[in-house]
Design a protein that fits this description.
Shape: rod-shaped
Strand content: 15-25%
Number of strands: 9
Number of helices: 4
Order of helices and strands: EEEEEEEEEHHHH
Structural class: alpha+beta
Helix content: 10-25%
Largest sheet: 5 strands, antiparallel
Radius of gyration: 56 Å
Strand order of the largest sheet: 3-2-9-8-7
Length: 256
């Protein structure tokens, strides 16, 4: 499987679609609900996982700890998901059905795969994984429907056409968002209060208003009678003097 330079020998028609950061860990263990008589426990603290159009390949950074390499067909790994703990890096899980003669003891019908992404990229890896697996599953279903295969045998999955995957971006790279344009606010003028229409009493020409304020020619004396005179009437003093004289004369006569 290895080519002697810390890489692997690809299968016919195999293409590498994604590589994880080099400090990704791998753990293979027996699920808790199926412990078995001899639980399986294989672990690598650092390495690189390669996702191809046919399988998952993991190459540890240190091969002296019992694990030289690991590979599994994509369709043999199910129930994959990403877990984001509150503390620590994200973890990718999957359930593997081992291939006969692949190095895992036959009594382990189901093995749990756990990859810890210490340098990030778990969600990007999972998105590409789901895309590839869906394409391969659809091709296998079409082959079964046409009678070309029974199970996974006889289906040439290397010839499956994969749609173009999203371009790979380095961890931490980001695309600058286009600047937002803000339009200048338009002032809103409050609506003017509606004026009540003039009444019929207000629709009087100015000439008629002037006429209503002027007294009639024949009522001049009546207007004057209602006013208090500022001076005594004519002949008032003469009348007062004549009355006083008459009063004195009468008083003299009565005294005699």
């Amino acid at each position: 499987m290895l080519d002697g330079v810390q890489s692997f020998i690809p299968l016919p028609g195999e293409q590498i679609l994604w590589r994880t950061p080099p400090r990704t860990t791998l753990a293979l263990s027996t699920p808790n609900k199926f412990p078995g008589k001899e639980p399986l426990s294989i672990h690598s603290g650092s390495g690189t996982a390669h996702l191809t159009n046919q399988r998952l390949v993991y190459l540890p950074a240190d091969t002296s700890k019992g694990l030289n390499s690991f590979s599994a067909p994509i369709l043999n790994i199910q129930d994959t998901h990403v877990s984001a703990p509150m503390f620590g890096p994200n973890v990718w899980y999957g359930a593997l059905r081992p291939v006969a003669g692949g190095g895992i003891p036959p009594q382990h019908a189901l093995v749990e795969i756990k990859m810890v992404f210490k340098e990030g990229g778990a969600y990007d890896f999972h998105a590409r994984w789901e895309h590839v697996r869906e394409s391969l599953s659809q091709a296998l279903e079409e082959a079964r429907a046409s009678g070309r295969t029974a199970g996974n045998s006889g289906a040439d999955l290397s010839a499956v056409h994969l749609e173009q995957l999203p371009a790979y971006e380095e961890v931490g790279a980001s695309v600058a968002a286009p600047p937002q344009r803000f339009e200048q606010p338009v002032p809103i003028t409050p609506p003017r209060a509606r004026q009540a229409p003039p009444s019929s009493n207000d629709l009087v020409p100015s000439s008629e208003n002037e006429r209503s304020t002027k007294p009639a020619p024949g009522n001049t004396s009546t207007a004057r009678q209602g006013q208090t005179p500022d001076e005594p009437p004519p002949g008032y003093e003469e009348t007062q003097q004549s009355t006083l004289v008459n009063h004195l004369e009468e008083s003299v006569r009565n005294s005699q």
